[in-house]
Amino acid sequence: MTPPTHLQNKQSDPDSKPQGQETLTLTLDGEEVTFFAGETIYEVAERHRKEVPTLCYDPRLEPFGACRLCVVELEGARNPVASCTTQAQPGMSIKTKTPAIEEHRKVLLEMVVSENDGIEVDPLRGYASQELSTLVDRYGADTGRFQGAQSGCSKFEDDNPFILRDYNKCISCYRCVRVCAEQEGDYAISIKGRGFETQITTEFDGLLKDSACTFCGQCVQTCPTGALADRKALRAEGQDGELQKTRTICTYCGVGCSVDLVTQEDRLVAVQPAMDGPANEGALCVKGQFAFDFVQNPDRLKKPLIRREDGELHEAEWEEALQRAADGFLKALDEHGRHSVYAIASGRAPSEAAYTLQKWIRSGFGTNYIDNCSRA
Ligand code: SF4
Ligand code: SF4
Ligand code: FES
Predict the structure, then answer these.
(1) Which structural domain, as residue segments, surrounds residue 356?
(2) Signed CA dihedral, 260, 264, 266, 269: sign only
(3) Is there a single domain that holds both residue 276 and residue 248?
(4) In degrees, to the nearest 5, what angle opens at C-alpha 13 toward C-alphas 9 and 17?
(5) How much distance in Å is there from the Cα of 86 to the middle of ligand 3?
(6) How many domains are there within the chain?
(7) For residue range 314-364, what is the model confidence (pLDDT) as tens digits?
(8) Which residue of 51, 112, 114, 236 pairs with 146 in a disulfide if CB–CB is 3.0 to 4.6 A?
């Protein structure tokens, strides 16, 4: 599973051009490049394939400017500027990678990691969980250079089944708080205190289940350090087998969110949102994010069951079960007419099964009494 260094930007094509917008120019690393009104320096640089590091940046959210890792040299400016919060202007001359800027970024990174109790985390923790460790490797940053106080206090006592709150690994980028507010519209988490007292918290500093949290998992997937982690995925931590991702669509409802199923050998171990999913842009709800245990549940029926004279369900062969079902449907049709039959397909069934069911109800019984919970 390849760790992302940052979430994908929607406008990553250097030639992409918003319709009807005037093309402006600036100088980027000595080369004249085009940009469009409203773009930030980071967006222009990213579109022109410059590797500007980020930590507090998530392209789906309003720029925030907390980590300063995205600093660039801007001609005429006294100090390096944060590229994610600075609007590109015509005639600007920008350098994205000078020795001084790279050193500046390395020192900033060392300050950030010094308040983190560990940077090597399992990629199962979340989609963006490898961002910090990837940057530390890239810059050869010394994780123990600065000693002193650390912000963030873990909340392991929050025993919900979905989200691990390991704030000792928090770097106060506030991506979790912002994604909850801006993307989810939920405002379930917030920031308490400042400086080394900074703590990500809920209203009244309680448990997530007692807050407005809907357990959509957005905060987990945007966290660049693994401080917020997918508890269900971590059940597979330490198990043998390479992690692989397979792109598909969540079947639970008609929104059609794109997801990546994370598998290890023949086991489904996690679901991660597809940041470039056209319907969801990385957002999921609790069902799409966490409700996948049914796939490997040992209680799943593998053989049909028939209720016998003793009133109990007994395993049966398919032929007998299908015949019994057919007899029951024909009896209902005969005695009560075509509207006595109503079918509801499960969102957990494959599309082919849903299609076949509606065909069977419509053609076989002559009624439109057919629905699917995915329509909700
Ligand atoms: S928990 Fe993660 S996303 Fe939230 S502020 Fe801390 S490091 Fe950032
Ligand atoms: S159930 Fe949730 S995750 Fe799945 S498609 Fe609907 S909104 Fe998206
Ligand atoms: S990415 Fe620009 S300030 Fe953090």
Answers:
(1) 305-375
(2) negative
(3) yes
(4) 105
(5) 10
(6) 3
(7) 999 999 999 999 999 999 999 999 999 999 999 888 889 999 999 999 999
(8) 114
